[in-house]
Design brief:
Layout: H1 2-23, E1 32-33, H2 38-47, E2 56-59, E3 61-63, H3 70-75, E4 80-82, E5 85-86, E6 91-94, E7 96-97, H4 103-119, H5 126-140, H6 145-156, H7 167-181, H8 212-215, E8 238-241, H9 280-286, E9 289-292, E10 317-318, E11 323-329, E12 334-346, H10 360-374, E13 377-383, E14 388-389, H11 391-402, E15 412-417, E16 422-429, H12 444-462, E17 465-473, E18 479-485, H13 493-500, H14 510-522, E19 528-535, H15 548-563, E20 567-572, H16 581-585, E21 590-592, H17 599-610
Parallel strand pairs: 2-6, 8-9, 12-18, 16-17, 16-19, 19-20, 20-21
Antiparallel strand pairs: 1-7, 3-4, 5-6, 10-12, 11-12, 13-15, 14-15, 17-18
């Protein structure tokens, strides 16, 4: 019996692969994955005028009522197809393309869609808008016409023959083929009960991923919808809100006097299983649409302590009242005043501690390297008197005298001691992601502590004004900024104790932390002001700060700092930083440390490069 079942399963799987392969209109041997093209496509999209801050992501399959042949009906395929679309916040392309028999054509199709999306605006009519955008693109860049023609010719050979369709579908097919050959030549498209065969060269109407029905989940549901660590996050799903059926009311078909005792009744509502389902991620991946409902059921059986603030008697000590800060909303293109509450804090129960013995040798070596910068002497040219002859000034004087233009100038060089006139504020990200391990011995937070300690040892010898702060956040009402050393405090064992007492916090609301650091650094009287941000990832928080919202707010905070005369610079260990940091800090406003364990020694050297005259 078991052998029969296994044989049936084997035959079924072979049949499924066979019929699916025969019914598929794709060319698997020429398939191109979006993952391999994602970064160059994002660069191309922005370079050709696309909105900054929009990343290239995979589009989910979409239902289309297509006319399918017999094989496709037997196999159950071609009910859903991946379609490209773009709106003000998203650029979604198919996760893979195999519509052409040549891989080069599929790669060219990805590039064409990115170029077309860069020209696209709000879609009002699918056919007319795509023709207009194609016309604009070909008119602006005539060199693309040959590539476009090659794609159209290859695609028209694969489209259904109008002779095999009914009257309405054939008329629509002819109109679409005409619109592809000559963009702008078709104004009216015939109606048809069935959708036309997909046009991979056009953008389709966007899916409403940010509708209130899909996004308004409330604070109680945010954690349950996040992707578990280590799980792959695929294309976004369509979602709709449904009303949860109430359990109140109903007919009680029992006489109350038949109950043995009222005191024995315990109200335990355990109708819903709150345990983790190991197959939930796989099942969700297979679903095309997720239905969401608001259930007032508290989870049991586990505590998510990292989402709760610690008790007041063990929490860090707050300094004064909270500070109200603004936040940039890119969707409204306006600043939301007093939107974020930032609380300045100092670590609790952090006793004064000396420098750890493991760092003493590195600190001594850095002090010797930076001592000469404190007493650095600079040659001043064109001086009326000095210890050396200024050969360049003498040559200029000789040439001018030969031409009858003899201007008075000094011909000597003098070496004088120069005073460094700068202040630096180092802002360290201590979110809970820093609790991750780099290797078997060290965590990210350990490297950050060592970096702050060696940075402080170096700058205390150098004599520059500096301050050290850490930050994390838990939604906009709890942005926490730990004061490790202010500009007015000395760098001593008390500061070293605070640094060694740092613990991983919560999330990373960069914009608020940068704005507060800008205010603190802006009060300095020094001529040059450097704001360093040390982080291990991109901006994020439990509320709307995830994704583009956080990136745009951080970018706006960096621009505000530059307008006030500060020099913001980001140091990161995130290998994916090239996808978002150039947009937030500029191409020359950040650096990636590929070996995080080298960060404590690399940061002082980087500071030296940034502050050289």
């Amino acid at each position: 019996m078991a052998f029969t079942v296994e044989l049936e399963e084997w035959v079924g799987s072979v049949w499924h692969r066979f019929i699916t392969r025969r019914a598929s209109p794709d060319f698997p041997d020429a398939r191109v994955e979006l993952a391999s093209q994602q970064r160059p496509l994002a660069v191309l999209f922005r370079a050709m005028g696309g909105a900054n801050g929009i990343g290239v992501e995979a589009a989910s399959d979409r239902d289309l009522l297509l006319r399918r042949n017999v094989l496709q009906q037997i196999a159950g395929t071609c009910k859903q197809v991946p379609l490209a679309w773009c709106d003000a916040a998203n650029l979604r392309l198919p996760s893979s393309l195999a519509v052409f028999p040549e891989a080069a054509l599929n790669q060219e199709l990805y590039r064409w869609l990115a170029l077309l999306a860069a020209q696209a605006g709000q879609m009002r009519h699918w056919g007319r808008d795509n023709q207009r955008w194609t016309q604009q693109l070909l008119r602006r860049y005539p060199a693309l016409r040959a590539r476009y023609t090659r794609l159209v010719d290859a695609h028209l050979q694969l489209r259904p023959d109008p002779a095999t369709l009914n009257t309405a579908e054939a008329a629509l097919e002819r109109a679409l083929c005409q619109a592809l050959r000559e963009p702008g030549s078709v104004e009216h498209f015939p109606r048809s009960e069935r959708a036309a065969w997909p046009l991979p060269l056009w953008l389709y109407p966007p899916q409403n991923l940010a509708s209130p029905q899909a996004a308004d989940l409330g604070d109680e549901s945010e954690e349950s919808l996040t992707t578990p660590p280590g799980e792959h996050k695929g294309a976004s799903k369509r979602a709709k809100r449904i009303d949860e059926g109430t359990r109140d009311g109903g007919l009680l078909i029992v006489r109350l006097e038949n109950l043995f005792s009222w005191t024995e009744h315990v109200d335990l509502d355990r109708w819903s299983d709150d345990s983790d389902n190991p197959d939930a991620a796989r099942v969700a991946e297979d679903l095309d649409e997720l239905s969401l409902s608001r259930t007032r059921l508290r989870k049991g059986g586990g505590l998510k302590l990292h989402l709760d603030l610690p008790p007041a008697d063990v929490d860090d000590i707050p300094l004064g009242e909270g500070i109200k800060l603004p936040e940039w909303d890119y969707r409204k293109q306006q600043m939301q005043e007093a939107f974020v509450n930032l609380q300045m804090m100092v670590p609790r129960d952090c006793e004064a501690q000396p420098l750890p013995p493991r760092l003493k040798a590195s600190a001594h070596r850095l002090r010797r390297q930076f001592e000469h910068l404190r007493n650095d002497r600079q040659w001043l040219r064109q001086q009326p008197q000095g210890s050396e002859l200024d050969m360049q000034a003498w040559l200029d004087f000789h040439v001018e005298r030969e031409h009858g233009q003899c201007a008075e100038r000094g011909l000597f060089m003098e070496q004088r001691q120069t005073r460094r006139d700068l202040a630096c504020l180092l802002l360290a990200d201590v979110s809970m992601s820093t609790d991750a391990h780099l290797n078997d011995e060290h965590r990210v937070i350990d490297v950050i502590r060592d970096t702050l300690l060696l940075f402080g040892e170096t700058l205390s010898v150098l004599g520059d004004d500096f301050a050290l702060y850490g930050f994390s956040s838990l939604r906009r009402h709890q942005v926490r900024m730990q004061e490790l050393k202010s500009f007015t405090q000395r760098y001593d064992d008390n500061t070293r104790g605070r640094i060694q007492g740092l613990k991983p916090g919560y999330y990373t609301r960069m914009g608020a932390a940068i704005r507060q650091a800008t205010q603190l650094l802006g009060k300095s009287k020094r001529r040059s002001k450097l704001l360093l941000l040390l982080t291990d990832g991109k901006p994020n928080d439990l509320d709307l700060y995830e994704g583009r919202y956080g990136v745009e707010d951080t970018r706006e905070a960096v621009l505000e700092a530059r307008r006030q005369g500060l020099t913001p610079f980001c140091i990161t260990i995130d290998r994916e930083a090239g996808d978002y940091l150039p947009y937030m800090f500029g191409a020359n406003g950040y650096t990636l440390i590929r070996q995080p364990e080298q960060l404590p020694l690399r940061l002082p050297q980087l500071y030296r490069q940034l502050t050289q005259p």
